[in-house]
Amino acid sequence: MIVNHLKPLIVGNPQHPTDKRKQIFSEHPHLCADNHFSGDNVMDYLGKNGFKGMFTCRRDRLPNDCPNCYFHYDKIQVSPESKVARFQQPIVAAKFVAPSTSEEKSYVRAHCSFQSTGGTNISTVNAMLEVNLYVREKSLGAGAPTNVGTELR
User: Fold this and answer.
1) Cα–Cα–Cα angle for 143, 148, 149, nearest 5°?
2) Residue 15 resides in a domain
3) Most CB contacts within 10 A, which of 71, 102, 134, 151?
4) What pTM, to 2 d.p., does this model score?
5) What is the predicted pLDDT for the residue at 152?
């Protein structure tokens, strides 16, 4: 419902003749939400309509097209070791979707699965279009650090 209320507020989108609200968005907004709003239906609806979104994702709402064995699906015992490893070696899956009708837009869905004991999987649509590893050298003392902003590819 939120997306349907936002559509007429995007510059260039059609408005109902009685809708006198000003179009305030120059591009489709990026929506962020918690587990309750994640899932395949929501992600596909946002993507088809050109919106961007990032959501936390529970283990029972992992993408349907990919078997659970490819994600960190099993709940593990919480320990100091599991807390340290939680964000190491995430699994990232991407899906490029072509429009099926002339009104729909193409979109990219991405899912990042962490070694987690909770709902820290992240599902996105049109949000992770470019990902780089960014490293900065840390130094102590006076003076400017060297190699600031070195990109690794």
Assistant:
1) 165
2) no
3) 71
4) 0.71
5) 47
